[in-house]
Every structure is written in structure tokens, then in C-alpha cells.
Amino acid sequence: MRTVYVTEEYYQSEYLCGRDSALAESFLYYAAKASQKIDQYTYGRLKSGWDVTDDVKICCCELAEYLYSCDAKEKQTAGLKSYSNDGDSGTFDTESFSREEKEKQIRSIIRAYLSDGGILYQGRYKEER
Hints:
By secondary structure, the chain is mostly helical. It is built from 4 helices and 2 strands; from the N terminus they run αααββα. It has a two-stranded antiparallel sheet. β1 and β2 form a beta hairpin. The longest helix is centred in the middle third of the chain and has 24 residues, at 54-77. The mean pLDDT is 86.
């Protein structure tokens, strides 16, 4: 089973604080994807014994919602960049969920929550050798 750093109960009670869930039945899937991204940016430190703090859990929740919204946008437009129909025309902003922009936003979310604890340090700590 994949590592998930937040429970659905925590997501509902602590993160949402009464708001409606954006993830519906997909919580576990997106929380696992978010946890995988957190592992990528923290060099797997959480798997090797670092504490899963509230900052990690909230980061995981926000990241899960962001990943869900990206998937929803991609499904909605399904490759359509612009349209015209009986005088009505429009263009979708496909750049807002391009791969580069998506990674940039993921990095921004992770840094916003985890930059203070040393877990994003790119080197190795003495005890990690």
C-alpha cells in the first residue's frame, strides 16, 4: 500500500473546517499522489523516520486538492484550446495546467508549508549517512 501522510478524518475536520470537500470519493487517491510528491521533494525523509507534523498533513491536503483540480480541468477541456459555435467563441487557458506550471505550483505549495523544518534541505544530515 502507498504511503499517505493524512487521513480523510483529518482532511474533513482540520483542513476543511466545515467547507465542502473538493475531493469527494477520490480522497485516498489524491492524498497518495500528494504524499508521493512530498516524498520526492523531501528526499523520502518522512518514510525514514521524520515526524509527520501538522504542516506536512496540511500540505498534503492542499496538494491533493490542487492535483484534483488539475485533473478536473484537463478532463473538462480534453485538448480543446478554443471553440466557436453559432457566434459564441472562447479559448481555454491550457497554460494554467501545463506540466511546467503544474510542477511550479506543486513546488510552491510544498515550500509554503515545509520550508521551515529543514526537511527540504538538499544535502545530507550527519545521521542520514
